[in-house]
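Input sequence (208 aa), recorded before submission:
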Amino acid sequence: MAGPISHDQNFKNLIVDYPREALAFFAPEEAPRPADAVRIVPVREEQLQERLGGRYRRLDVPLLAEWEDGTRQAILFAFEEESDSQRFSPHRLAHYCLDLAEMFGTRRVVPVVVFLRTGAVRGTLALGTGRRDYLRFDYLACALGDMSASDWLDSDNLVARINLPNMQIRAGNRMTAYASAVRGLLNLEPDPNQREKYVDFKCFPIRK
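Predicted structure, token format:
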């Protein structure tokens, strides 16, 4: 099984290689519609330092989606992957998003957290007093470990198919999920190099 750094890099590769499919699967509420003409590009992961040589914050994968016909304003998607929900910090993610908003001069930032196992942390971070909240921060949460693989066996979304083994699978159906993941890769990805790259995808810890 790949180590933490390796599966983190695999996760980044998956989103950068298939940004549109990743947005549709992980953030369907805000993702571009299938017919939209959209340019999606990764942006710098390291946030600007307040002082050279000092510490800096680093996102998993920030993506910029720009609608070519101008029907919607550009949106920054701030992806964060968490293999251990207990380590997730909404405070840290809020810092990332504020940094991105300041760097790009926009308020259109969508935080997306992908939890690899069950027990995803959901909820709004609110700072304030009993009288009122002065800062509220929310995020989209995709909990792979709580999703039923049977709902995605025939999906035409390549990112969803590749992640079938990381979802909830009924007893005795694990080989069916793996077979559907490989079949989806072969049917939906025409590039043989990309097929080879993802046929043994181990971005996430193997679920027992």
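Checked by second reader. The longest strand covers residues 75-82.
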